[in-house]
Amino acid sequence: MDRIARMPADERAALMRMAAGRSKAMPPEVIEKDFWVCWVLDRLFDSPNMAQKILFKGGTSLSKVFGLIERFSEDVDLVLDWTEITKEDPTTERSVTKQDIFNKELLGQAHVYLRDTFLPEVRTLISGLCDAVIEDNPEVVKIKYPASFPSEYLRPEIQLEVGPLASWVPNAEYHVKPYAAEALPDEFERSVCTVRAIKAERTFWEKITILHHEAHRPKGNAQPPGYSRHYYDVCRMTQTPVKIKALADLDLLRAVVTFKDKFYHRGWARYDLAVPGTIKLVPPEHVMKAVEEDYDEMRFMIFGDRPSFQNLIETLRVLEAEINAL
Q: Which of 170, 198, 226 lies at the terminal end of a domain, its last residue?
């Protein structure tokens, strides 16, 4: 992988074009960005010092680790070991008010750590090929990579979203491979990297609880942009064995709900109802329109079969009934 990264730009661009020609209808700029995502993951998890304090999670892991979705993501979600920034136990029992104060203090400490410790380490790991910066969002490290193809919808950067307020269990080691290596295996001396990632069953329940709190979003409280990806991801996961494993592990659902209510408490989210019998996945009308518009805007990020919005919502109705019947 490193050999490809260090190729002259014109040779690397030619290789990405060739890989795009053999891929699942992905343009070369997507193939290229995916390569740099995998290269960055390789640099991070190949470093013993870095690998021991981060964990891969979120939507990009569903695509790159588990092959469950066909959606390209620009973000790499990383859990930061909170022992790097505090000696206090975040899971200690606290009142809602005291927990909120603790969470904000921990995030503030994390921002300082990312700026003063994490960012310099990342810059060292990617030096000579990419650069890393923290701009407006103190929780996001942007990796600027040498893009060969202009794009209206893909920025030449990879966003590492790093934070301590996420669970580490359950996790395991997995392999990640660039799409370019799948298309042109003979071009890669080493085509995979090893990462430690949250298991897909937890990500399933985390996204289910996102849909649940969105189903309770009050009128006048706008849904953030980009949330339609969670609806798509859940829809795709319902067609895989991950759904069966997750539905058989309601203890994991309870653990996810407890964690979210402690670290991401919202009174209106009604996490107390995120249990079989009362869980909600289908958005109300005032949220539905925002999801539909956002889903249309993200169509360029889905490189496989894209369910219609109506099909997506119907799939969620069926899944909601299935969970509530457990």
A: 198
The CA distances from residue 156 to 29, 33, 75, in Å, are 9, 7, 12
The verdict on pTM exceeding 0.85 is yes
Does 106 lie in the same domain as 47?
Answer: yes
- pLDDT at 23 exceeding the cut of 90: no
Q: Which domain holds residue 136?
A: 2-198
> Per the structure, how many domains does the chain have?
2
Same domain, 177 and 276: no
pLDDT digits (tens, 9 = 90+) for 36-80: 999 999 999 999 999 999 999 999 999 999 999 999 887 999 999
Relative to beta strand 193-198, strand 171-176 is antiparallel
Judge whether residue 24 has pLDDT over 80.
no
Is 193 in the same domain as 228? no
pLDDT (tens digit per residue) in 212-235: 999 999 999 999 999 999 999 999
Task: Give yes or no: residues 124 and 150 share one domain.
Answer: yes
Compute the Cα dihedral for 124, 128, 129, 130 and give only its sign.
Answer: positive
The rounded distance, in Å, linking the Cα atoms of 167 and 259 is 8
For residue 63, the Cα-to-chain-centroid distance in whole angstroms is 9
